[in-house]
């Protein structure tokens, strides 16, 4: 893998051209730059802007152990069989794809390692000022630029940031497994509201019917406007490749609803809005630390610890300084 | 429970006085106000400032299923036996304490439900502009104000925000359980670096020795300056109350090191700094949405979706508007 960092605009446009032609090294390099919050990010984003919105983005989330990676793997198989080019972004720290943090490099999904129509990347938001909310859509845009028809964003369904990222997809799949009060935990974690399609995975296990009924019951209780989407529930045993067509069918149905109702545009605008906000917040956050070369924040922190002031009063002082420093 | 919202300064100082006297309803009310990001938050923070830093703050984190709640429960028991007043904040969406999101009210820890020396609260950051990083320290301050000697902050060890919150404690406990590659997963999730004390829970299970050795091995590989803290590893079977004294001993040892090395002050300043930053970011974020009554952000989002601009260029325009709106 090339370790040369692009330093000029010419290099960025060269990288983007190569990614457009499907060069996996160029794609990998661009995702790395995006993930690390490279200073060239604005240029990369500008170069990719024309290709935005060309992929169907599927979010996939659920508690650790429900079979997210296996299901993603199976989805990729079915989508590839249809001839789609597929990208996978795994922002799940418990995912086997997400070796990045330890290995210093991505781990490719075993089954699709030699398939040139599949890009798989682990994602981490470390070093990216805008966090996951800015890094993930930027990486999606790289994969769109590289010609992916579908991008699957896999996140762990614990942690607000991670749940939020999955919820910003065109279609959001929430995986559950029988037992362990998983359905209830999903509600607690706030992932019920974001699901367009529920997948009861490991549906051959005891308790799968109960989980299925629980979810159907919760959906029945939910209030919906006429014409609004009613979440689908499908059963699967991803480890045995069972029920995957049902998942894809439900996703297709949701996609048709999105297109017909105008909801697709609204969702995508919402996604863009969250991304823009995250970038703005990242920029503003950088300014906070640089007020008075950081001395102001350090002094205020000490004052709070000593009880001389409180964090809200300290924040007001910093805000005044940020305004004055312009 | 009183549902009357304090509307004036006199009400806030009354609430704080009652909390100081140990009235559990006043404590609960203050935590609720803090959690929801109530407009009175700055006043509450100011009233509590003098009592800041009086409690020892213990963070406790780990993957779902490692026994966090059981361990917290046991820690409370041992600390109570010492005569300490204890507060617990559960920001773990998979915690049985964290019924808040479903039940609309906190669920008290069963064993300690009638003990007036224990406050237990689930926490959610919804509605709080500064997120968990601002809501949690603010709630800690309420419990300090209420005379807690120790505050345990339990968070799920998946999700960057949740891990970050635990890492801001005086002492951070990371729980692991044998099997499931948990040790490796901990590293991936970035929770190895934040642990002051590792607890190998469920130590009666197969694989506990291997997990213990793995962790010791990773600690041995870590580079440390002379005088720096070397993470301790203890074994426990929290469900049988075994090994809890060992955990408390390790926490005490770390506490002595913190005090002796000056690290305590540094950690607490860091915690205050993160909190101040989170509040500032929350305020700035509110401004982003209000630029041109929100129309600017909506228009820019549409431009990004249509490929007319990219999110970085859009962010720059918003930043310019935020500056101009002052």
TrEMBL record, chains A, B:
Keywords linked to the UniProt accession: Chaperone, GTP-binding, Hydrolase, Nucleotide-binding
Coiled-coil spans in chain: none
Pfam families in UniProt: MeaB
Gene3D superfamilies reported for this sequence: P-loop containing nucleotide triphosphate hydrolases
InterPro entries, A to Z: GTPase/Isobutyryl-CoA_mutase, GTPase_ArgK, P-loop_NTPase
Family: Belongs to the SIMIBI class G3E GTPase family. ArgK/MeaB subfamily.
NCBIfam families linked: lao
The protein's name in its UniProt record: Methylmalonyl Co-A mutase-associated GTPase MeaB
UniProt source species: Pilimelia columellifera subsp. columellifera
């Amino acid at each position: 893998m090339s370790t040369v960092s692009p330093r000029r605009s010419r290099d960025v446009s060269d990288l983007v051209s190569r990614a457009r032609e499907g060069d996996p090294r160029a794609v990998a390099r661009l995702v790395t730059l995006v993930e690390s919050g490279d200073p060239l990010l604005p240029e990369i984003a500008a170069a990719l802007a024309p290709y935005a919105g060309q992929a169907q983005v599927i979010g996939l989330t659920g508690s650790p152990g429900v079979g997210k990676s296996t299901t993603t793997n199976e989805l990729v198989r079915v989508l590839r069989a249809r001839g789609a080019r597929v990208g996978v972004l795994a922002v799940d720290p418990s995912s086997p794809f997400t070796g990045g943090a330890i290995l210093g490099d991505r781990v490719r999904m075993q089954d699709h390692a030699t398939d040139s129509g599949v890009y798989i990347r682990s994602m981490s938001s470390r070093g990216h000022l805008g966090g996951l909310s800015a890094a993930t859509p930027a990486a999606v845009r790289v994969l769109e630029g590289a010609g992916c028809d579908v991008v699957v964003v896999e996140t762990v369904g614990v942690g607000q940031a991670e749940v939020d990222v999955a919820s910003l997809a065109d279609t959001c799949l929430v995986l559950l497994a029988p037992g362990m009060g998983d359905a209830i935990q999903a509600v607690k974690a706030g992932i019920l509201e974001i699901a367009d399609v529920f997948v009861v995975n490991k549906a051959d296990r005891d308790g799968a019917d109960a989980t299925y009924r629980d979810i159907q019951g919760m959906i029945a209780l939910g209030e919906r406007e006429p014409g609004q989407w009613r979440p689908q529930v499908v059963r699967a045993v991803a480890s045995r490749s069972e029920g995957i067509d049902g998942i894809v069918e439900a996703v297709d149905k949701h996609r048709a609803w999105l297109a017909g109702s105008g909801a697709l545009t609204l969702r995508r605008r919402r996604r863009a809005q969250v991304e823009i906000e995250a970038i703005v917040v990242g920029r503003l956050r950088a300014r906070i630390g640089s007020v008075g070369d950081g001395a102001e924040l350090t002094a205020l922190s000490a004052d709070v610890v000593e009880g001389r002031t409180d964090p809200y009063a300290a924040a007001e002082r910093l805000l005044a300084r940020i305004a004055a420093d312009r």
